[in-house]
């Protein structure tokens, strides 16, 4: 079993296509998506269709829940930015249609998968204790443990913070897969076609990108491969450049 794990596509169908093209050349058996699928990017419907075609297993993220359930008529924007986001939310709902919105509403907050080594993997947008609260790279062990709660999973695949990492806390391996559609821009300028920044059976505790993080953008997309090799869990986190053939 070789899993392709991604998150936070945010309606950027072209970025998703680049990730899938790269992954298909290298091979995988199942696509797992840790939420935030369609909003606020430019191609929400195409994003949904690509995920459906890929038979992706998706869990519900913050923006997925907002698309499906938020009553925008009761929200009073406090800035032009918030007003623009609400307008885009309404547009995205129209583009997706009632059937897809109903499916977004029914997405489960977590998905559990037994592993070949006898362990268990949980897929969640934020954290096992609170699916809407992300585990970020700069949290202390105590903060992370509070978000793990009493969940029995051996591996947590998550997103939400948009910054990928691979870390062991309290005997649980936590793999944040970053973002496909809104990855933070790194100050590094040497990203290659597939930059294999980290691969191994042991978590390094380091960020995937080593440069200073600046603004969010779509210059690259994050993806993570997870598989069992000889009884060990191997994780490979990659960066896929955008704007040209991946």
UniProtKB/TrEMBL annotation:
Residues 1-183 form the Calcineurin-like phosphoesterase domain. One of its GO terms (cellular component) is cytoplasm. Pfam families: Metallophos_2. InterPro entries: Ap4A_hydrolase, Calcineurin-like_PHP_lpxH, Metallo-depent_PP-like. One of its GO terms (molecular function) is phosphatase activity. Belongs to the metallophosphoesterase superfamily. YfcE family. PANTHER family: BLL5683 PROTEIN, METALLOPHOSPHOESTERASE. This is Calcineurin-like phosphoesterase domain-containing protein. It comes from Sorangium cellulosum (Polyangium cellulosum).
């Amino acid at each position: 079993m070789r899993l392709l794990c991604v998150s936070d596509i945010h309606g950027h169908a072209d970025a998703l296509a680049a990730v899938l093209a790269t992954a298909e050349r290298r091979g995988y058996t199942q696509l797992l998506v840790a939420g935030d699928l369609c909003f606020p990017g430019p191609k929400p419907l195409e994003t949904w269709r690509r995920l459906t075609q890929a038979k992706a297993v998706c869990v519900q993220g913050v923006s997925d829940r907002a698309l499906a359930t938020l009553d925008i008529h009761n929200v009073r924007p406090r800035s032009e930015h918030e007003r623009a986001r609400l307008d885009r939310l309404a547009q995205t709902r129209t583009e997706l249609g009632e059937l897809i919105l109903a499916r977004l509403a029914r997405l489960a907050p977590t998905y559990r998968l037994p592993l070949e080594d006898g362990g268990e993997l949980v897929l969640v947008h934020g954290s096992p204790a609170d699916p809407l609260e992300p585990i970020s790279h700069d949290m202390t062990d105590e903060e992370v443990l509070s978000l793990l709660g009493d969940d029995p999973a051996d591996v947590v695949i998550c997103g939400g913070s948009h910054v990928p990492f691979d870390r062991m806390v309290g005997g649980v391996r936590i793999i944040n897969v970053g973002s496909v559609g809104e990855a933070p821009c790194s100050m590094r300028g040497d990203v290659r076609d597939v930059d294999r920044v980290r691969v191994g059976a042991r978590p390094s505790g380091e960020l995937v990108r080593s440069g200073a993080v600046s603004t969010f953008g779509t210059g690259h997309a994050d993806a993570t491969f997870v598989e069992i090799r000889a009884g060990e869990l191997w994780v490979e986190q990659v960066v896929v450049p955008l704007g040209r053939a991946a």
